[in-house]
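Record now logged for everyone:
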Amino acid sequence: MHYARSEAKQAARKDFTGIWAATTTPFTADNRVDRDAIVSDMNHLTGNLDVGGVFCTGVMGEFWALTDDERKLAVEATVEGAVGKCPVLAHTGHHSARTTIELTRHAEQAGADYAVVMTPYYPPSSPEGLRAWFHEVLSSVDIGMWLFDTSFSGVDMPMDLIDELADFENVCGIKVGHDHARYLRTLERVGDRILVCEANEGLWLENMRDNGQTVFMSSAVPYLYQTPAAQPMREYTELALKGEYERAAEVAATLEPLRALNAKWLHGQWLRDRKLPIPFIKAWSGLLGMSGGRPRVPLLDLTTEQQSELIADLTAVGLLSR
């Protein structure tokens, strides 16, 4: 941690710029966390794609399917692959406040730059219970903390609670995993004190231009939409951050075919069927040079037919050679 607790907000505004990627967790053939593959993925992200940072052990990382020791191992491997290349944001949330504190302290000791926690996902609790949970966690750690307000947890963070937590000296940002209206309400309420981010690539240019967002934090699309040879998302991001919005819009428009595939295979599955698309993210990323691999149960791998169809779709939009 390169800042004092009281400097977390200031440090975050400097560190969180550009495109951050949310990583998956690769497993070995005998279903263990694959430390070497994590480091290899980090080399791809920081070297071939030059991401601004990574978000590990979160929803994309199947955190619910990992033991506490495996979560620690994954954070350690991510930091190992990121040292000197990009900052690391480690998801340390758990339904247990005490376990969340333990995982957060470990992330800091392992060298993560920041930590992020989603709303506890069991049991259902009152706004007062959520307030007590967050107060216990945030007051027990020194590392800069992000809040993760997401429908994946099954519980929305009350806006009054977000407003209150934004005043904690080590709370430096919030990732809003809801619709655009919710992002705008959150931005209006706390954007003067903490970073507010929406990881929707289709709205990323608009959010840079109209809402002052400086970091795309974070999803899998930076390594699903881009290859070492073609990086349109990075290109239009750099243009927009320099204020060249018209040129940025021209580049961003080239991603429409990929957005259609996203609606078919990825986020669209969650909206339509409430199915996490992580198996498809792993399969897609594996075809583009990352570790990919199988998910852990209860998620299931793609069928042979789905794999063939995905390959055909990625070939048709030019991500794979024919």
In short: The CA atoms of residues 173 and 191 lie 9 Å apart. The radius of gyration is 19 Å. Strands lie at 18-22, 53-56, 88-91, 114-118, 144-150, 171-177, 195-197, 215-219.
